[in-house]
Design brief:
five-stranded mixed beta sheet; globular; six-stranded mixed beta sheet; alpha+beta
Length: 158
Amino acid sequence: MTEILEQTIDKDAADDLQGQHLTFHISDSVYSVELQYVVEIIQVQGITRVPYIPSYIKGIINLRGSIVPVIDARLKMSMEERPYDEKTCIIILNINDMHIGMIVDSVSGVANLGPNDISDPPKTDTSHRNEYLKSIAELSGQIILNLDCEKFFLGDAV
């Protein structure tokens, strides 16, 4: 009985988050991830480098006793690195029951994106540039690039 109740609560919680996206900035663009993946947002803290990993994986942090790999979203998307400032933060995400941190320039807020706001990313000959995009949205005249969390972090566990 408890198991059925927990599944119902989980389903209801997921339904409440349907269409909700955490928006954030990387360079001059606005990106988002589905809110269902977001665990918390923290300030950049001491990151321990791990040898022999790609440069976009900045290392690991200790988050209340849990070791969390941290990825710099700018570097993962082949953008120029920039120094971290007071707006730079780490979004802690739960992807397939694993916590992963994603460093972004700043967090904007939560956007409620309905089906009419969202469209497929454009198809191009250089499709690898769009491989991490799940969709594109327009909200109040602003373009939001919605990341596919599972594709973005696939194979990035330290």
